[in-house]
Amino acid sequence: MKNIKIISAGKTELFDFAEPIGIGLINSAINLTRICLFDKPDYLIFIGTAGSYGKKNIFDIVETTSASNIEQCFVEKNCYTPLDNIISFSNDVSRETIVNSSNYITTNAEVAKKYLKLNIDIENMEFYSVMSVAKEFEIPTLGIFVVTNYCNNNAHEDYITNISKAKDLLIQRLIDKRIIIKEKNG
């Protein structure tokens, strides 16, 4: 049996069966690197929530192996980077949902539309760093996300309102895919 490790950010996204790795790009990279150094998994599944730039709907479930790290200044054409800012384990990225990661949550609907023009549909703060570490350690990785909010001025309030149901949907998805087994009481 392969050593499959399920990970999540933590804080409000805690699960009995997932190891929390921290919120944001830095903490998640540090903690996942530590995991990979001391008990390297054969496969990683990162579960969490995401904000939609407008194409995906609230409570949509997205599975992907592609992430980007594109900052707002880039979509507004105010900066550039010499770094490769998209990572994918897919052979056909054009068919993948790309998850953008930043330490900041987009709250401007007009900026969100600019991400859509780059074929980026959702954002999650940690997935790019998860994919970066996984690539370095040559660990295939899948991200499973439930959309909790649109990237607009209500993003935080909608996230708070929808997080509980989103976590239930993630658990059910993992049960349906036979990744976890939930014991039934009575």
Automatic annotation (TrEMBL):
GO terms for molecular function: catalytic activity. GO terms for biological process: nucleoside metabolic process. InterPro entries: Nucleoside_phosphorylase_d, Nucleoside_phosphorylase_sf. Pfam families: PNP_UDP_1 (PF01048). It comes from the Bacteria. Residues 106-167 form the Nucleoside phosphorylase domain. This is Purine nucleoside phosphorylase.
